[in-house]
Design a protein that fits this description.
The complex is a heterodimer of chains A (100) and B (189).
Chain A lengths: L9 H9 L4 E2 H11 L8 H13 L3 E7 L2 E6 L1 H23 L2
Antiparallel strand pairs in A: 1-3, 2-3
Chain B lengths: L1 E3 L5 H13 L2 E7 L3 E6 L4 E7 L5 H13 L3 E5 L5 E7 L10 H30 L8 H4 L3 H44 L1
Antiparallel strand pairs in B: 1-3, 2-3, 4-6, 5-6
Classes of the chains: A alpha+beta (100), B alpha+beta (189).
Pfam families (chain B): DUF2812
Protein name (chain B): DUF2812 domain-containing protein
Organism (chain B): Geomicrobium sediminis
Chain lengths: 100, 189
């Protein structure tokens, strides 16, 4: 059976993409706001829960801290998940193109 | 200003708190037994209630840290009830959940809490009522006239006290149901 976080929700997807570079929580939200051209603005509870969840599954990890903020980064396993999602989405996109 | 109010439904509590804030107040403290303290303010504040089970010290720090970065101020939280009270000045983002999945999980946490509390109340009721002899107040029904009414008045609070776990169980049950309804609406959308 598929992993329970797959296919990735928009929130999880953006967080994993943002954490290809190390960031602390609030910076992840800012990064995502920019990446999505302002269309995805995460709220505090959603971000906290998603980071906890991704961390629990070993897709991201804490790599240090700046002051009291923890800095997170994607793990090898997390990168593999992104790769799978990319293939899935590319396939769906190819179906769009085929119909034109 | 202090107000005393009891809630068994976290959403009703959040709604009531925000009604107070709309009248130009800001919440400065919440103590056990439902005592809420408010201060007059010129600014507009919003409150949001989250539910989290017991968080160990380092997790609580992470949890608070992220909310505080978003401008939320932690008013109160206790591991016993699990309700976390957050307040911030009204702005662009006044919600603590921005997607359906996280809001759904929040309702699930609430349901788990209500279920557990309801079960505890039922267990307590069982322990009280399995000794039924104490419940019927035999002597009372043999009394007549004024004496009966005095005795009835005297006994009533004790009967209510004995019934309170059942009433609490019903209240927690209804809050479980309201959590479930919110959750299922969210999933169907």
């Amino acid at each position: 059976m598929k992993h329970k976080l797959l296919p990735l929700s928009e929130t999880m997807h953006y967080i994993l993409l943002a954490l290809r570079e190390p960031h602390h929580g609030y910076a992840v939200m800012q990064e995502i706001e920019e990446m999505s051209n302002g269309s995805v603005i995460l709220a505090a509870g959603t971000l906290y829960g998603a980071i906890e969840n991704l961390n629990k599954h070993g897709w991201i990890e804490a790599v240090g801290s700046s002051g009291r903020r923890k800095i997170y980064k994607i793990t090898t396993e997390g990168s593999a998940v992104l790769k799978l999602e990319q293939e899935r989405l590319l396939h769906i996109l190819s179906l769009y193109e085929g119909s034109e | 200003m202090k107000k005393i109010k009891w809630f068994f439904n976290i959403e009703k509590e959040e709604q009531w708190l925000n009604e107070q804030l709309q009248k130009g107040f800001r919440c400065t403290g919440i103590s056990g037994f439902g005592i809420y303290t408010f201060d007059k303010t010129e600014k507009q504040y919003v409150m949001r209630l989250d539910y989290q089970d017991y968080l160990p010290k380092d997790k609580l720090q992470d949890y608070k840290g992220i909310y505080e970065d978003f401008g939320w101020h932690y008013i109160k939280g206790s591991w016993l009830s699990g309700i976390r009270y957050w307040q911030k000045e009204e702005g662009n983002q006044n919600e603590i959940f921005s997607d359906r999945q996280s809001k759904g999980k929040y309702y699930k946490r609430l349901m788990g809490y209500s279920f557990l509390m309801g079960m505890l109340c039922l267990a307590l009721s069982y322990m009280i009522y399995k000794d039924l002899s104490g419940f019927y107040h035999d002597g009372l029904w043999n009394m007549e006239g004024a004496l009966f009414w005095y005795a009835l008045l005297f006994e009533t609070p004790f009967v209510l006290l004995k019934l309170s776990p059942v009433m609490l169980a019903i209240l927690f049950g209804s809050s479980f149901y309201s959590g479930y309804r919110n959750y299922s609406v969210l999933i169907e959308k």
